[in-house]
Amino acid sequence: MGLKIRILSAFVFFTSVTLLDAAPMLRLVTSVVGPVPILTGGSAPAQTVEAYNIGDGSLSLSVSVPASTTWLTASVGASRTCTTTTAAATCIVLQFALNTSGLAAGTYTGTVTVSGSSATIDAPQTITVTVQVGAVSVYVAPGTSSDVHITTTHSVATSSTTQDGNRWLSLVLNGTGSFQFPFVYRIHVAPTDSMAAGTYTGSVTTSGSSVASENLTIPVTMHLTTQPIAQAVPSQINLRLAVGAPPLVYPFDPFVSLVNLGQGTLTPGAVTLTGGSWIAPDKLVPSFISIDPTGLSDGDNTGSVTIASNAANAPTVVPVDLQIVDKGAPLIYYQGVLDNGTFVPGDTVCAGDIMIVKGEQLSFSPYTPGQAPPLASQIGGASITVNGKPAPLFYSSYGQLAFQMPVDTALGTALVQVQRDGLASNTVSVNVGTRAPRIIAVVNQDGSVNYPGGTVPAHVGDYLTIYMIGLGPTSPAVATGAPAPSAEPLARVVGEAVVSFGTGIAAIPSTPIFVGLTPTAAGLYQVNAAVPAGYTGVVYMSVGFPDAASNSVPILVR
After folding, report:
1. Ranges of each domain in the chain
2. Which of 22, 37, 371, 549 is the most buried (most CB within 10 A)?
3. Whole-model pTM?
C-alpha cells in the first residue's frame, strides 16, 4: 500500500529572556499543606514548608495571601539547616498561622503565593493550605470504601469507635513524607456488602502529640446508600483575571463534571449559576459557561455552580472564586511549560516539540490562531523566547500560548519567557532531552479518528496514521517554524521506530512504513503503520525508539 499523507487539522489543542548568571532557582519541599483536622471553634497548629535554591546566587523570598482568606496568614522565617529534604543543605522556612477559631464546620482551602526577586527562576510558586473543621461526613455504597485525608506534624496514636459496634471506621497512617513531615493519615470508611442502607455515626481519636491541638476526636457520619453518589470534578474553582481581560468561555464539561461514586446510573439535571453577571451561560452556546470580568474592580467575587441530579447527596454545589487583579506583566505558572501531547508538569520535552505555556495575562486579545507555516513569532501581542531566542507561535489567548521549541535548543535546562505589550514575564525552566515522543491522535485508513468510544474501528491490515510530537531530529532537517517538505525528500526521523499493539511482553510489533514530519506542518510528526493480527477490541498502542517510548493510547480494533 502506498503512503498516504494526511494533515491533522487543528492538531494543537486547546521579552526576551536574559540568561542569568548567578540566578537563583526556587524549589519547595511541598506545594500542599493539609488537610489539617481542627475541632469546631478550636485552634490549629502552625504549619511550615521549607524552600531552597537549586540555582546560583542568593534566594530571597516573600509570601502573600489573598485578603479574603482571613483565616490564613503567612510569613518568611529565617534560613536553617534543611530538616525535610536532602536536596539542599540550607532552607528558608515558610510559616503559616491558621486562625480557625471562627470557622464553621467544613473544608477550607487557601493559597499562599511564594515570590522571589525578578532574577529568580521558577518563581512565583503557590502552596495550597487546607483545613478540615469539625465533623466529617461521607457518602458511600455497600462493599466500597471512602477515604478522607488528614495530616499532623507529629506522629499520633489512633483509635476509632462506631455507634453500631461494627468495624467500618478506622484511622490509618498513610505515609510520613520526607523525614518526619508531614504525617498523613486516612479516615477510612469501609462498610461491608451486608450492611443496610442508612446513616451511621462514629468517631476517630488522635492522641500522644506534643502539640495539644493535634490531640482531638473527630465525629464521622457515614451515609450508606445504594443510590448514585455525585462527586464534582473539580470540587471548587479558583480563577484569577486581570482588569480588562477578555471573557473566558468554558464548556460545562470539563469546566465542571460529575463522577458517580455510588451505584446505579447518575443522571445530571439542571445547572444553576450564582454570583452575579460575571458568571453566566454563554450567549452563543448555552451549554458553555462564560466568565466575564468586564466592569469588575480589584478584589474577590464569589459564586457557585449547582448541579441537580438523582444522587443521594444532590444537589452538588461547586464554589467559584474569581479574583480580579491589576493589569500587569504576563505570568507563567510554575512548571507551566508543557508538551502539547500529555501535558504532564515537569516532563522532559525535546527540540522542535509543539509546546504550550500556561499562565495569566499572556495576551489580552481573544483566542487568536496563528498563520499557517512558516509560523509567526508574535500573535495577539504576545511573543516567546527560549534561552533568549524567539520561538514561533501557533496561537495566543489570555491563559495559554502554543509555540514550537526551537529545533536548535541545547540539551538540558531551557529558560522560557513571555513578552506582551513591552512587559516581560517571569522565567520558567523546562528540561530538554533528545527525544520525547507523545501520541496526540490516531486516524483510521478512511480518515476517521480512532478512539475506544468511537463508532469506526480499525481492522487488521489497515494502515493507521498516528500523529505525534517530540520525535526529534529529521533528515533533511527543517528549520524552526518552517513547513515540512511535501515532496521527496520528505523529512524522515533519524532513528528506528516500532509501533507496539498491546502491552508488555505480549505486545505485537508493527514496523512503520513512514516516520517523519507531516508535510506542510510545523513540528507535527506522523507514523504510518499497519494493524497486525492478534488483538481485537480495545487495544493499547505505543510507539517506541531505542532511546525513548511514547505514551500508550487505546484504540478500537475489529
Report:
1. 26-133, 136-224, 230-325, 331-433, 438-557
2. 37
3. 0.90
